């Protein structure tokens, strides 16, 4: 291949969810309300938790941070996608693409670490209730929060630096609606060996650490709940975990479908599955936590009454 075909592109073209012109405006009309609902829903969660003293606990502290991260997460992706629905060129500069990829990886992994922190919180609350205040003190919560941000951002920075070293072919068309790692990697002509080794070692460790924490926490919770003699006690213990388990299932289920398969098999179905954890899960989180949580529902009602009173 000649040197003219091996260059670093100044921009990429994002094909989006559909390349058909007649689909663009309907897709814009569909995803704009989703974005607004996600923003409003997660902001309401944050405001409710901050305004109600009964919700000043580690679990709701992590939930408010999760809502903030979800706002950042969708903002990295959806505004550009909405702009491309109404644009004929659908381009994104090389620098914008790497920036979008960086924050997508960072916030996505931050989500998983926060879900792990919430699983640890539920484990302590159910398995060690008498020592809950001592174990989940302010210092440990802040430590978990710092780790949840620092590890994903360092992980993301490493991947972006490795991606920036790649040489790209003549094609600059990304078969996706944002700059995800796999679709961008498919455009590269240079060897992926170093990046693949990094993904299989450092990347796998970063991803599996929070997932393992969640699995271990819930195994311990399950064992503890089985020892509770009354059915009512079992139900009450499990009910405190139901919202978190629902979010974890949605998040990890769609991610597993997309990423735990060979890169060459990345298809349109994977793009649709990606919509679930990048767009739908952040939108559904406020509903899952508010509708299935008595304290959150009461907090939301108090917030609404306070706003109406003003």
UniProtKB/TrEMBL annotation:
Membrane disposition: Multi-pass membrane protein
A GO molecular-function annotation: olfactory receptor activity
Locations listed in the record: Cell membrane
Signal peptide: none
CDD domains cross-referenced by the UniProt entry: 7tmA_OR1A-like (cd15235)
SUPFAM superfamilies assigned to the protein according to its UniProt record, in alphabetical order: Family A G protein-coupled receptor-like
Keyword tags: Cell membrane, Disulfide bond, G-protein coupled receptor, Membrane, Olfaction, Receptor, Sensory transduction, Transducer, Transmembrane, Transmembrane helix
One Pfam family of this chain: 7tm_4
GO cellular component, one term: plasma membrane
Segments crossing the lipid bilayer: 27-47, 59-81, 101-120, 141-162, 204-226, 238-260, 272-291
Residue ranges annotated for the G-protein coupled receptors family 1 profile domain, each copy included: 41-289
Tree of life domain: Eukaryota
Task performed by this protein: Putative odorant or sperm cell receptor.
Family to which this protein belongs: Belongs to the G-protein coupled receptor 1 family.
Protein name (record): Olfactory receptor
UniProt organism field: Bos mutus grunniens
């Amino acid at each position: 291949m000649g040197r003219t075909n091996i260059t670093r592109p100044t921009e990429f073209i994002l094909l989006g969810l559909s390349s058909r012109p007649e689909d663009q405006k309907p897709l814009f009309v569909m995803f704009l309300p989703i974005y607004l609902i996600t923003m409003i829903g997660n902001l309401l969660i944050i405001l409710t938790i901050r305004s109600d003293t009964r919700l000043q606990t580690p679990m709701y502290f992590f939930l408010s941070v999760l809502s903030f991260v979800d706002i950042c997460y969708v903002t990295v992706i959806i505004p550009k996608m909405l702009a491309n629905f109404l644009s004929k060129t659908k381009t994104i500069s090389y620098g914008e693409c790497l920036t979008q990829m960086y924050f997508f990886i960072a916030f996505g992994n931050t989500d998983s670490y926060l879900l792990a922190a919430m699983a640890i919180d539920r484990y302590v609350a159910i398995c060690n209730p008498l020592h809950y205040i001592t174990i989940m003190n302010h210092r440990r919560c802040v430590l978990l929060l710092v780790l949840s941000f620092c590890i994903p951002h360092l992980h993301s920075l490493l991947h972006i630096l490795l991606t920036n070293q790649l040489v790209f072919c003549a094609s600059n068309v990304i078969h996706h609606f944002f700059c995800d790692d796999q679709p961008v990697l498919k455009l590269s002509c240079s060897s992926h060996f170093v990046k693949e080794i990094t993904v299989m070692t450092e990347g796998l460790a970063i991803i599996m650490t929070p997932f393992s924490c969640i699995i271990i926490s819930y195994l311990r919770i399950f064992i503890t709940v089985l020892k509770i003699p009354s059915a009512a006690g079992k139900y009450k213990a499990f009910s405190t975990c139901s919202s978190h388990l629902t979010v974890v299932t949605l998040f990890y289920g769609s991610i597993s479908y997309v990423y735990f398969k060979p890169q060459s098999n990345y298809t349109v179905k994977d793009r649709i599955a990606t919509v679930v954890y990048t767009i739908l899960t952040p939108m559904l989180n406020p509903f899952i936590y508010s509708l299935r949580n008595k304290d959150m529902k009461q907090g939301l009602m108090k917030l609404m009454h306070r706003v109406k009173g003003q």
